[in-house]
Design goal:
10 strands, 12 helices, Butyryl-Coa Dehydrogenase, subunit A, domain 1, alpha+beta, four-stranded antiparallel beta sheet, Butyryl-CoA Dehydrogenase, subunit A, domain 3, Butyryl-CoA Dehydrogenase, subunit A, domain 2, 392 residues
Length: 392
């Protein structure tokens, strides 16, 4: 686990350099229009550097990093608008598998985990609460129905379907591995072109006993683990994106001249830039605190209320701040900020999806309020709010 500020600075520099060399912001428009929407070579390089297994313990073949490390990495990826499935596969799906591997039936989870860490395969964790499920853990399951929108599922090789987890089925909860070829996948292009989603149709999809990764409390815990990880990753992505959007706005305000003066000298622009700066700095602070809270907890038992509260509050603040900062960056740029060729709109759309992916601003704030009041435990919060987030 990386701990010192010097080591994290070195990690940030290494990731920023890799992305600048192989996936710069200037190439995003071309990459997202490709067949998969991301550059496979970049993900091979991330695998070679151990970044796809950053949240995987060393005894399971990963890098054994901590959440402070994933904050560093996702911050740089957010700033670079990195297209592709890092959050859906290397964070959400991977940490769900780590949780499943620690349960009573770890075999299938460990094998798939190795394929994700090496970059050989990608996966997406999806909420199967809308599916009709029959069968049992002993005999296997039969799945029917549709999942309307699943972020990351459009290009995933494997779907990790959470049935019962967070949907009130209790002991009937299970985490299932379903090969993409068994499901009818209809790609959905999102406003944020750097990530893709899909509608998934299950028609008598059989899940054999060997593809059941976790059941009961183990499945519930794996999904909670994945959700907390995704919240931190998207919060950090939001910090990086907001930081770069602010840099674009600040640079433009210094060079754009109106009425014989740089527009940055006007009070209205100064106020926007100052507010954006405060938003970026505060976001960086709260996501660092959230990462520290999860690292200290280390996933031993159910998450304490203060951990869930800290992580959810960080996600709510960072994603909301990103939307505001990216929106103000467009306004600062004026007409050019609205053009397709300028990157401002991509930051704004990514900000919107980060927020929507986690259930939306209102849902996150209500969850934080419930956790502050300690009116419900985390499992109940998951049942009402978290389950819907996995479907995007």
């Amino acid at each position: 686990m990386t701990s010192s500020s010097d080591e994290r600075a070195a990690l940030a520099e290494a990731v920023a350099g890799l992305l600048s060399d192989h996936d710069p912001v200037s190439s995003v428009a071309d990459v997202v229009d490709g067949p998969t929407g991301y550059r496979a070579r970049t993900y091979d390089l991330l695998a070679e550097q151990g970044l796809l297994g950053l949240l995987v313990p060393e005894n399971l073949g990963g890098s054994g990093g901590g959440y402070g490390d994933i904050v560093v990495v996702c911050t740089e990826m957010g700033g670079a608008l990195l297209p592709g499935p890092f959050a859906s596969s290397a964070v959400a799906a991977t940490t769900a598998l780590v949780g499943a591997a620690g349960g009573s039936a770890p075999g299938g989870a460990e094998e798939l985990l190795g394929a994700l860490v090496s970059g050989e395969r990608t996966a997406a964790l999806v909420d199967g609460g809308s599916l009709t499920v029959s069968g049992s853990a002993q005999e296997g399951y039969l799945l029917n129905g549709a999942i309307r929108r699943a972020v990351g599922a459009a290009t995933a090789d494997v779907l990790l379907v959470a049935v019962g987890a967070g949907t009130g089925l209790g002991a009937g909860a299970a985490l299932l591995a379903v090969d993409r070829s068994a499901v009818r996948v209809s790609e959905i292009r999102l406003a944020d072109s750097t990530r893709r989603a899909a509608e998934l149709r299950f028609e008598d999809v059989t899940v054999a006993a060997g593809a059941i990764l976790a059941v009961g409390e183990d499945a519930e815990a794996a999904v909670r683990r994945a959700d907390l990880s995704l919240r931190i990753a998207l919060a950090a992505d939001s910090v990086g994106g907001a930081r770069e959007a602010l840099e674009l706005a600040n640079a433009y305000a210094k060079t754009r001249v109106q009425f014989g003066r740089p527009i940055g000298s006007f009070q209205a622009i100064k106020h926007k830039l100052a507010s954006s700066y405060v938003a970026v700095q505060s976001s960086a602070a709260v996501v660092a605190e959230a990462a520290d809270a999860v690292d200290l907890w280390n996933f031993e038992g159910n998450p304490p209320v203060h951990v869930a509260r800290t992580v959810t509050a960080a996600a709510a603040h960072c994603t909301s701040s990103y939307v505001a900062v990216a929106g103000d960056a467009i306004q600062t740029h004026g007409g050019i900020g609205f053009t397709w060729e300028h990157p401002c709109h991509r930051y704004f759309k990514r900000a919107w999806l980060n927020q929507a992916w986690l259930g939306g601003e209102t849902a996150m704030h209500l969850t934080v309020a419930d956790l502050l009041a300690a009116k419900v435990d985390l499992a109940a919060v998951d049942g009402e709010v978290v389950g819907s987030r996995l479907a995007g």
